[in-house]
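Same chain as my last thread, 143 residues:
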Amino acid sequence: MTKGTKTSKASKTASKGTKAKSKHANATSFNSETAKAAQKKSRESLKRNRSMREWAKFYGAQHITLKNPQGVEEDATWDGAVVVGLYKSAMAGDSKAAKMLADLKGESPAEKIEVKGTCKVRHETNMTPQEAAEFIAELDKRI
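reply #2:
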């Protein structure tokens, strides 16, 4: 009897292992329904993980209603509202807002500087100390 009992326990253990394997195999099977669900989750994840540039483009293009200085309501975008806010800040004395507006309009003073003239460029490893001192003195005269 003892021998028969051991055999039956072994067969029960073997059958349990088989059932566990079959359950595991069914859980990981990949069919068209699971593929569609995975694809949907992937699309949702991509929507949530947009870059800041993509979010800025999206929200900048959204339409809102603004009142112009005469009090008339106009259709505008969020980008337009930001520009209006920059103008209001610049009018109140914010120099950073004024600089940003000048940059946006392409009227930044840094963009209008023109460099004219010719200059001989020499690499410092080719100069003797005497030549380097003369070169620096010449630069000081030009400045």
